[in-house]
Amino acid sequence: MRDRNWWLLVAASGTLMVAAGAFGAHALEGRLVPRLMAAFETGVRYQAWHTLAMLGVLAWRATRPLPGQRLALGLWALGIALFCGSLYALALSGLGRLGLITPLGGLALIGGWLALGTCALRAGRPATPD
């Protein structure tokens, strides 16, 4: 199977995202100050969107593998780990210095979108039927 490891990573990210969302809604509700709860929820939301984006790129790669798609996947995976992971850790520990990692993760997420756009531009236009 092409991109098996990427599929496994997306499955793991989706699993962790659902677990984190449930944990936040049930175990953390009322236990965290609103600012930290909002940070945790932001991490879940960004992980959800970027896990879905990775799924879409993998589906695209299954039909048309192009240079740049793996770069987008890698940057999003790094961004999820750094951005979402630091927000989860910040919310659960309350240690503000963990927030220094968050912008690096955000830059990786943005870089993934830029890589995807570049990949799409380089792919050219599909042939249109006459």
Automatic annotation (TrEMBL):
| Keywords, sorted A to Z | Membrane, Transmembrane, Transmembrane helix
Q: Does the keyword Transmembrane apply?
A: yes
> Which residues span the membrane?
43-60, 72-92, 98-116
Q: How does it sit in the membrane?
A: Multi-pass membrane protein
User: What PANTHER family does this protein's entry cite?
Assistant: TRANSMEMBRANE PROTEIN 256
Query: A single Pfam family, by name?
Result: DUF423
Which InterPro entries does the record match to this protein?
DUF423
Q: What is this protein called?
A: DUF423 domain-containing protein
Q: Mainly localized where?
A: membrane
Q: Where found in the cell?
A: Membrane
Family according to the record: Belongs to the UPF0382 family.
